[in-house]
Amino acid sequence: MPLPKAELHLHIEGTLEPGLAFALAARNGLTLPYADTGELRRAYLFQDLQSFLDLYYELMAVLRTEDDFAELADAYLARAAAQGVRHAEIFFDPQAHTARGVPLATVVAGLTRALDAAPERHGVSTRLIMCFLRDLSAESAMETLEAARPHLDRITAVGLDSAEAGHPPAKFKEVYEAAAALGLRRVAHAGEEGPPSYIREALDVLGVERIDHGLRCLEDTELVDRLVRERTPLTLCPLSNVRLRAVDTLADHPLPRMMDAGLLCTVNSDDPAYFGGYVGDTFHAVREALDLGPERLRELARNSFLAAFLDDDEERRARLIAEVDAYDFATEDTATG
Length: 337
Ligand code: HPA
Ligand code: ZN
Hints:
By secondary structure, this protein is of the alpha/beta class. It has one domain (5-17, 48-325): Metal-dependent hydrolases (TIM Barrel), CATH 3.20.20.140. Helix content is 47%, strand content 14%. The chain has an 8-stranded parallel β-sheet with strand order 1-2-3-4-5-6-7-8. α10 (221-229) links the parallel β6 (210-213) and β7. The N and C termini lie close together (7 Å).
């Protein structure tokens, strides 16, 4: 049995595997500019975040119908569950779909169909986090929030993603204020490629409760002290950091140093179809590359539930943390743990 864990940093569009991309393209009468899945996979060599995003936005054009989104999400949930995920907080990018003429209602209906079935089908509880694309305007983000009003009972939080450099969080101050007024929780990507000041801005101007990535906090010791003091969770994505060249190799990843510093770290997969693994694979990879012992892995799993938006189900949080505390690593399936 794999270690129980929550996944808190997962872009559903980033779970689009090459096989499903080709199947959906065929179903929707679209032609991908790649001969087959092998040729597509060979395009997965990224220099930085932008080179990944170019392919990520190109490929998601195959997602058109409610069924497409339901199938995508169900495939992710099945894989995640097999790797020990018991709770998943799932990002989606409405503007990347509405810009292509796919209505927000179609996206939400497809995703929630899969999410609604997930507790029974996969033993996974879920939350949805609607992300704004930070390289688009604040007006576009505000329009997206407005358009989401009929769906807010299904959306737990707002997030901020896409190209970070040159797009500081403060641009979205009013949107985040409006989201908070609507009762939404707040997170934001910060310090993936952007400077530590973007992490401060996300906390101070946007009022976020968690920082997605946050890797570059290490360049600012006062900021690290603050994140430790305030117990701000960081949703780290080590395989993503290697593939997008934020770190040279997994062995160079600062995760152990960050844990030693007292930061509330979680480990996540980001865009698993593109970055070489789902969250269980990620746990396995960091354990090997960074020589993390069982207690370190247990701490990461415990942190994932502590940082989850499970405030409306504290009983489940407590039960899952108790499972982590009681977990016997001798029963682990190392292929998927
Ligand atoms: N960073 C920023 N935006 C994203 C990512 C990421 O890793 N994945 C999908 N959108
Ligand atoms: Zn991300």
